[in-house]
Amino acid sequence: MPTCPNCGTWNPDDKVVCWRCQTPLPKQEPRKKSSKRRLFLGMPLWVWGFFLLLLLLNFFLPLILRWVGM
Ligand SMILES: [Zn+2]
Q1: Ligand 1 centre and the CA of 3: distance in Å?
Q2: CA of 44 relative to ligand 1 center, distance in Å
Q3: What is the mean pLDDT of residues 5-29?
Q4: Cα of 8 to ligand 1 centre, how many Å?
Q5: How high is the pLDDT of residue 49?
Q6: How far is the CA of 17 from the centre of ligand 1 (A)?
Q7: Which of helix, strand or coil describes residue 43?
Q8: Distance 30 CA to ligand 1 centre (A)
Q9: Most C-beta atoms within 10 A of its C-beta, which of 15, 18, 22, 36?
Q10: Ligand 1: distance of its center to the CA of 26 in Å?
Q11: Residue, of 18 and 38, whose pLDDT is higher
């Protein structure tokens, strides 16, 4: 809820100018969610992705090798 910088009147969120004195209201910047690294069980998500990749590789590599070795 922006308040008018000129007269201090409260304005609804969708108002662009103050309904009372027509002063342009400062745009409300939507607060960006903190870009802090997301953690999952104490580890960054990319670590889990890496582990998953390793796991998949570990699982599929023998199959691929067998397939190629044929
Ligand atoms: Zn005003």
Answers
A1: 8
A2: 47
A3: 89
A4: 6
A5: 92
A6: 8
A7: strand
A8: 22
A9: 18
A10: 11
A11: 18
Q: How far is CA 30 from CA 1, 13, 26, 34, 62, in A?
A: 12, 12, 12, 12, 50
Give the Å distance between the CA of 9 and the centre of ligand 1: 5
Tokens of 17: 């100018």
Q: With b meaning 16 or more CB within 10 Å and e meaning fewer, what string describes 17-46?
A: ebeeeeeebeeeeeeeeeeeeeeeeeeeee
Q: How far is the CA of 19 from the centre of ligand 1 (A)?
A: 7
The pairing of strands 39-40 and 43-44 is antiparallel
- Residue-level pLDDT at 29: 66
Can you read off the two tokens belonging to residue 13? 């969120």
The residues spanned by each domain of the chain are 39-69
